[in-house]
Design goal:
18 strands; eleven-stranded mixed beta sheet; disordered N terminus; 17 helices; alpha/beta
């Protein structure tokens, strides 16, 4: 079995760290008066470090599988939980944070976590240690200064040097004097790990925006390209409307194909909350309103639903002039509560009690195989969805009780019992009725590419996965000027 372990882990087992930063970590771990936090994306590394320091503190795992793998540590005085590192808003006043990243999390670590969860978690003067395997560090750290965007990102921090070597060319002189951290990289001789250490400055203030420039990632849309698209909408004077104004104008149309374009920009929030806030700021800068849809309590937001920062962010988005709506998963609500309307009313009221005005909703589908096999969609729960249903009439295997709920509810009941006036789907619900037979133009990033639904002639040409090129932004803006539209974005896919 040991032959399957990475070289660095076998060397770590044979030669434990001896450097000063390692001694600091052991000292904090041994002091019951100190607060110790772990961010775990690499369980192999975490287990070895935990074994050497002693298991204590709060462990946040980046996935349920990692949390389960670490659960046996809880018996040794640890608290183990799964949480999205990007949000982690409940963390504060820690003396030391030890981060064990998986290789694929390195960009997130440098470009987001340091200015987000780690900065929030540490008390002034607190430190974070990043034990990076030497095999990984030789490639990752050596290449970072060679990447122009990453080098610019690192300049946002304080002192940056390799112990025993000269500072990276020109970098040290370009650091911000008021950076939140002093940044230090120490490489003990012959050790299997490179220890990276940051110290939160006593006078540090957290910035509302990330301090890093972001490198392009293959599985995310660049946020700068979303900003480019919003700029095109502003320059082309595409009319983006609040939901009530859109509904009133759309319902009055005799023929939408004879109308000039106007529409809604909606954002389904599934994972972290901070990307949505960043997109809201971009919209505000372009004088465009947005509809941001927060899910009810759900597995998709379990890592941040109960955190006060989540609701502060949503109230801040609302204060910018944007709307907050409810992103409904009818499959989940029916399974958990047995009645869609009662569960929706409870979910909407929960958001309202937190200071949010909730009048709109969108629907979230279910992609499990039993549901897809029956070609079921969320709209199948509503009577008004019958004309577009693709359900084959058979009950979904293992979910047979859902069958009695298909077509059982109406938009009028949705409005009466939950206060939700607008169902912002292509089958558009307006004050308890459906605006039909008109279907607005639908733009979506659902396929991880920016595309219009409908006939091939409506599709954008030259679309690449996770890219919004200048040509795509220009053509999209031109198309949205032509007829009524809905545009859907998923903040978790933007970087």
């Amino acid at each position: 079995m040991s032959a399957l372990l990475p070289n660095w882990l076998r060397r770590l087992a044979a030669r434990p760290p001896q450097g000063p930063l390692w001694q600091d970590a052991k000292a904090v771990a041994a002091d019951p008066e100190k607060r110790l936090l772990w961010l775990i994306g690499n369980p192999l590394l975490a287990r070895r470090i935990v074994t050497l320091t002693g298991a204590r503190g709060t462990f946040l795992a980046s996935s349920p599988a990692i949390a389960n793998a670490l659960q046996d540590l809880a018996a040794d005085g640890c608290t183990v939980a799964c949480a999205a590192f990007e949000t982690a808003p409940h963390l504060a006043d820690y003396d030391l944070c030890i981060v064990c990243p998986a290789p694929e999390q390195i960009p997130d670590l440098y470009e987001d976590w340091l200015s987000g969860p780690i900065a929030r978690a540490l008390k002034p003067g607190g430190a974070a240690l990043l034990p990076v395997p030497r095999d990984m560090a030789a490639e990752t750290l050596a290449q970072l200064p060679a990447r122009e965007d990453a080098a610019a990102a690192l300049r946002a921090f304080g002192d940056f040097h390799f112990a025993g070597t000269t500072p990276i060319d020109g970098t040290a002189n370009r650091f911000s004097a008021d950076a939140p951290f002093a940044f230090d990289i120490v490489e003990p001789t012959e050790a299997p790990l490179v220890w990276i250490r940051i110290v939160k400055r006593p006078e540090a203030t957290l910035q509302p925006k990330p301090v890093f420039l972001r490198s392009q990632q293959p599985d995310r849309f660049p946020m700068r390209e979303f900003k480019l698209l919003m700029g095109r909408l502003e320059n082309r004077k595409v009319r983006v409307l609040p939901t009530a104004n859109f509904a009133r104008r759309f319902a009055a149309l005799a023929n939408p194909r004879e109308s000039k374009g106007f529409g809604i920009l909606k954002f389904d929030i599934h994972r972290g909350i901070h990307r949505a806030e960043e997109m809201a700021r971009i919209l505000t800068g372009k004088s465009l309103p947005g509809l941001f849809l927060m899910m009810h309590r759900h597995d998709a937001n379990a890592a941040y639903y109960d955190h006060e920062e989540t609701w502060n962010v949503l109230r801040n988005i609302q204060s910018m002039g944007h709307e907050i709506g409810l992103h409904l998963d009818p499959f989940d609500l029916v399974r958990r509560h047995g009645d869609l309307l009662a569960a929706t009313a409870e979910a909407a009221d929960d958001l309202r009690r937190r200071g949010l005005a909730i009048e709109s909703a969108t629907l979230h589908g279910d992609t499990r195989n039993s549901i897809r096999a029956r070609k079921l969609r969320a709209l199948d729960f509503f009577e008004e969805g019958a004309h577009v249903s693709t359900w084959d009439g058979a009950p979904p295997e293992g979910d047979e009780t859902l069958t009695e709920h298909f077509g059982r509810y109406t938009l009028a009941e949705l409005k009466e019992k939950t206060g939700i006036r607008f169902l912002v789907e292509t089958t558009f619900g307006n004050d308890g009725t459906m605006i039909k037979p008109f279907v607005p133009l639908y733009l979506s990033d659902n396929t991880r590419s920016l595309r219009f639904s409908g006939p091939k002639r409506q599709r954008l040409r030259g679309v690449e996965p996770f890219r919004i090129t200048p040509a795509v932004a220009r053509n999209t803006a031109m198309r949205l000027r032509e007829q009524p539209f809905l545009a859907l974005f998923h903040p978790q896919w933007y970087w």
